[in-house]
Every structure is written in C-alpha cells, then in structure tokens.
Design brief:
Two copies of one chain form a homodimer.
Chain A (H helix, E strand, L loop, with lengths): L3 H20 L5 H8 L3 H13 L4 E3 L5 E3 L2 H6 L2 H9 L2 H4 L17 H17 L2 H9 L8
Antiparallel strand pairs in A: 1-2
The complex binds FE2/S2 (inorganic) cluster (2 copies).
The structure holds a DNA duplex (30 and 30 nucleotides).
Chain lengths: 145, 145
Amino acid sequence: MFSKACEYGIRALIYIGQQSADFGRRVGLRDIAAEIDSPEAFTAKVLQQLVRQQLLTSVKGPAGGFELTPEQLRTVTLRQVVLAIDGPGMLQGCALGLPQCSAKQPCPMHYQFLPIRDQLNELLRTYTIGELAGKVHEGLGFLKQ
Amino acid sequence: MFSKACEYGIRALIYIGQQSADFGRRVGLRDIAAEIDSPEAFTAKVLQQLVRQQLLTSVKGPAGGFELTPEQLRTVTLRQVVLAIDGPGMLQGCALGLPQCSAKQPCPMHYQFLPIRDQLNELLRTYTIGELAGKVHEGLGFLKQ
DNA sequence: CACATACCGGACAAATTTGTCCGGTAATAA
DNA sequence: TTATTACCGGACAAATTTGTCCGGTATGTG
Ligand code: FES
Ligand code: FES
C-alpha cells in the first residue's frame, strides 16, 4: 500500500503527536525508533523530509528533538504526509499501471476501482495527526506490536 | 498499489483472454508486449509464473502461444492473479505496516481502513478475467494508452 | 569559551524489484 | 530427420528502495 518510508513517517508523526499533545514533550530519534519499531537512521531521513515540508518541527541541541505544534496537530492530514513521501501515485494512479488514469481511455477496472480509491482519498484527507494521536492516547490504537 | 509485475500480468491476461474469447486465437509474447505496452522479457517471466499456477495456458512450437481456456476465462479472478504474483500483502496487510493487521492490537487507522480494504478484496474476488476481457471487447476499457 | 546534545546532510551499502540475454526444450511441418 | 517456431529457465544487470555511517551544524549549559 504505502512505502516503508511512508509507513515509518506516519507512525512516527502519530507518536510525536501524542507526546506533544498529551505531555508537551519533545521526543528524540532514539525514542521514536524504539516506540514505533523502526530503523533509527532510516527513520531520521524520513523525518528530515517531513521537517523540510513543514509537517513536523525539529529543535536541535540538548533538550531538543521532534515535536508537533498545536497547529500542526490540528491541520496536518495523512494525505499531506503520503503526498510528501510517496507522491501522488497511490492517490491518483491507475490500478493497472496505465500511465494516466483517465475516463478518456480508462483501463477495464477504472469505474470499479474509482470509488474505492476515492474513499481512500477521503479517509486520508479527513484524518489529522492529532486525531490519530488521540486514538493512541485512548488505547484504541497502537504503533507497534 | 500493485507491483509492476502484477500490473503487467493482469493486463496481459486480459488481452490474452480477449483474444481467446473473441477469436479463439493464441497470442505470442511479442504481440502481448506490444498490445499492453510492457517489456517483453520481463512480461515473459510473469506469464511463466501464471502458467505454473495454472491461471494461464501456454503452448510451445509454431502456432503456439498463450491462451485462456473457457474455464480459465470463467473462473480465474483478479484476486487469484494478485495473490499469485504479489502475495497476500495488499489484501490483508496493515495500512501502517504493523507486522500483523489484527483487531487485537490494531493501528490507529485500522477500523477506518478495514472497510476500504474489504471493498478492494470484494472487487478482486468478484471480477474474472473473462468479464474484464468483455469490457475491452466492447470498447469500454483499454490496456494501453 | 568549552562542551555535550541532537538534528542535518551526504556518501555509502544491502536488499528488492525491474528488466535483459541466451541457450534449452517442446511442438509442428516439410 | 531437419529446420523453424515459440515458450522455459537460469544467470546476469540496472534501477529503486531500504538501511547504515559519520562528520557537520545548531543549541543549550556551565
Ligand atoms: S484508468 Fe485504470 S484506474 Fe483509471
Ligand atoms: S492493524 Fe493497521 S490496518 Fe489493521
């Protein structure tokens, strides 16, 4: 579905968001990688991408780390994260790999596939990191097994 | 969504299916690759996989090629093709990459993601190669642009 | 300032996916 | 039988994704 990079990115954001929202606490790379069960250095790369795209805030130095501002918690959606890391492929690409998904020259799956892809888009567009962090806080969702 | 291998496999099957159903005609690798716009040698690998799994029939020698029997046209579903090439990942994996998708320890997206994944499963389970080939025959679907 | 902390950035390496090549094998026909 | 056709199978190569390493840079503390 999503790339590993994207999966790590989303899980990391949710964890950072939960710590920011619930404890106003910055978290370091080591923490993050441990809490979401991901390779530390690789996760760092992904987070750097997100920082550059301003979906995430980082602070250097002692007591530094990653955090999500209240605004980021409220406004950053999964869609933005997926777009930032994986690009638009999964969100608008053809199910059978035609170079363009279009009703002009649709693949045989097009009209059956479209509603499902639309629902996925809607889902990603709707959920913010803050909402997902809330689920983790309430024990309704987990970031590792 | 699916791997390139899987995309080529599905498109190839639909094309072969259309030729088998509409003209009772076997098609060769060269034809297939041209008609679905895919790399010939790589497509060959994918088709070999499908032949081994008996989702496709091949005949060697002059006037040989690939074909789908009436039974294959009627019974082979997209789901079988995806499983044969990409495995069960997309059909039952966790959206955020947790090693197991399970309600026991679900990720924060689980309950939102599940209905969408279920619809995808249903779609793949429902459609046979024969039905999709029909769409191409009627000009309602295309395999390249 | 000196020092410790922790993110940043680039180079590098491993693994996987995608794609190519070529000789082998089976089938058909002259 | 010989030649030709076309799929089969393994080895190989390129490209992409995933993952590691290490020095640089910014920041806070004494
Ligand atoms: S053209 Fe294939 S999904 Fe739209
Ligand atoms: S646990 Fe993530 S989708 Fe089910």
